[in-house]
Amino acid sequence: MIIIGVAGGTGSGKTTVVRKIMERLPKGEVGVISQDSYYKDSSHVPVEERQKINFDEPNAFDWELLLEHLQKLKKGQAVEMPTYSYLTCTRQAETEHMDPHDVVLVEGILVLTDRRLRNMMDIKVFVDADGDDRLIRVISRDCIERGRTPQMVIDRYERVLKPMHLKHIEPCKRFADLIVPQGGHNEVAINLLTDYIHGQLNKKK
After folding, report:
1. d(Cα 113, Cα 65) in Å, to the nearest integer?
2. Do residues 12 and 174 touch, judged by C-beta distance below 8 A?
3. For 59-68, which contacts have Cβ atoms below 8 Å and span 24 or more sequence positions?
């Protein structure tokens, strides 16, 4: 099983890169794991305190479960991936079934920070974007999908997102095999990745 890690800051265009790759590949042959699904459950934390949780540091994630699921997939075993609600900041009762695939994309802001996870990856990708562009995308996304006001997003960006990006995410560039500037607008990089995956899939046939 080929594992491709796709990291980058919040709002950098990681999800768009992954989506465009998936649109150009045979349906069902490539799996996607979102690191966001593996946030630790915060249901034990009072509701008013959950908004203060730092979701942009490595300790926010259940690394052990993510690694366990990848190891099972490599062994040809199916897994039940957790689901997470951004509105309540809690892990949901429902899970998402995932069968083994020849190629798996692991996407998330911090997927390159864990050495064990990096060692499992065949290719490490960092999606890069200007800080102002990332902020604009985050404001748009969080206001529409997560019920926040623009001021709430800006305050969180200055208090948490920017410092955590500089501390944890930006340094991960040095681990990347491929840096993708301009996120989902970089058609050349997306085509290169798609061609590589096509080649790996053809080897399996």
Report:
1. 16
2. no
3. 61/35, 61/108, 61/110, 62/38, 63/38, 63/114, 63/116, 63/117, 65/38, 66/33, 66/35, 66/38, 66/106, 66/117, 67/114, 67/116, 67/117, 67/120
Q: What are phi and psi of 90, to 5 degrees?
A: -135, 155
Between CA 193 and CA 124 the distance in angstroms is: 11
Classify residue 165 as exposed, middle or buried by CB count within 10 Å of its CB (0-12, 13-18, 19+). buried
Confidence of residue 169 (pLDDT cuts 50, 70, 90): very high
Q: Note the Cα 161 to chain centre separation in Å.
A: 15
149 contacts 155 by C-beta, under 8 angstroms: no
List, for residues 40-97, the tens digit of each pLDDT value: 988 888 887 877 788 899 999 999 999 999 999 999 999 999 999 877 888 999 999 9
Query: Do 156 and 53 touch, CB atoms closer than 8 A?
Result: no
Burial class (CB in 10 A: 0-12, 13-18, 19+), 18: buried
What's the chain's average pLDDT? Answer: 90
Q: What is the pLDDT of residue 51?
A: 73
Interval 195-205: pLDDT, tens? 999 888 888 76
- The pTM is what? 0.89
